[in-house]
Amino acid sequence: MARLHLVDATYELFRAYTALPSIAAPDGTEVGATYGLVGTLLKLLRDPRVSHVGCATDRTVESFRNALFPAYKSGEGVPEDLLAQFSIAEEAIRALGLTLWPMEDFEADDALASAAARYRDAFEQVVICSPDKDLAQCVEGRTVVLWDRRREKVYDEAAVQEKWGVPPRAIPDYLALVGDAADGIPGIPRWGAKSSAAVLSVYGRIEDIPLDPDAWTVRVRGARALAESLAAHREAALLYKRLATLRLDVPLSESPEELAWEGVPREDFEAFCARWGFRRLADRPHRWR
User: Fold this and answer.
1) Is the pLDDT of residue 222 over 50?
2) Rounded to whole angstroms, how far apart are CA atoms 98 and 103?
3) pLDDT tens digits, residue range 228-286?
4) Could you tell me what percent of the chain has a pLDDT over 90?
5) Are both 80 and 34 inside the same structural domain?
6) Which CATH number is 136's domain given?
7) Do 64 and 199 share a structural domain?
8) Are residues 122 and 264 located together in one domain of the fold?
9) Do 211 and 82 share a structural domain?
């Protein structure tokens, strides 16, 4: 059976924007981040083990989560010349002949989580190409894994447990307690990584943590203060968990067979490269048939 690679194209676009120098298209449009995204996708496609690929993007930075929690991450502060490249990046992904899921009300991570859940039984393994700890909640044994391509680190269920101190299913609870600055989730006062992992290793989820510290069976420093803080912020903690929990109901219409990459880009890939000044990349996919 083949493997399915799921790419967090939004992450790749942001990373390329910060890592690469500015590149101007023939018409002067900034396209450096898109150039980096295309380059990293071509590198992925060069691997002979990569046969089926799905990419997800955030067409808008905001999602349904902003209605639940106005302080959740938004497009505020994101450079305009980066935001303007999202549509170009989507054009690039399609021109490469890859399946694209552009998200509006949902987030790209929701699409990847939904794809992992929907297609896992059709493939030998689902590989989520992202270092984002949010996506660690999708990991299942070695059937669904998280791949940090930059560090060449693969996280199966045991590796998730080792790195964050909790199993994949408890990642939303962990992020709710500790917080996630990248997503605008503030976390619960006094709760740090070690205390959260220790408590969740015993109780599994926020809903099952006793609010009475005398009922705790876990030994952790400052248990009374932690319990009091959670009791005072319980509703917030549950909201943060909801924000951190990826949705599995994003409508994806493709069959597993439709996720196959044909080994060459679409006919308009060369025209895309010419339009945006990517001529150095134009012939690379053909070398890898």
Assistant:
1) yes
2) 16
3) 999 999 999 999 999 999 999 999 999 999 999 988 888 899 999 999 999 888 766 55
4) 84
5) yes
6) 3.40.50.1010
7) no
8) yes
9) no
Q: Which two tokens stand for residue 37?
A: 């995204």
Tell me how many domains the chain contains: 2
Query: Do 22 and 147 belong to one domain?
Result: yes
Residue 219's domain comprises: 168-244
**Are residue 172 and residue 34 in the same domain, yes or no?**
no
Q: Are strands 3-8 and 125-129 parallel, antiparallel or unpaired?
A: parallel
Count Cβ atoms within 10 A of the Cβ of residue 6 and give its class: 0-12 exposed, 13-18 middle, 19 or more buried: buried
What DSSP assignment string belongs to 117-143?
HHHGGGSSEEEEE---GGGGGG-BTTT
| Residue of 76, 69, 137, 96 whose CA lies nearest to 12 | 96
Structure pTM?
0.94
Concatenated DSSP letters of 223-282: HHHHHHHHHHTHHHHHHHHHHHSPPS-------GGGGB--SS--TTHHHHHHHHT-GGGT
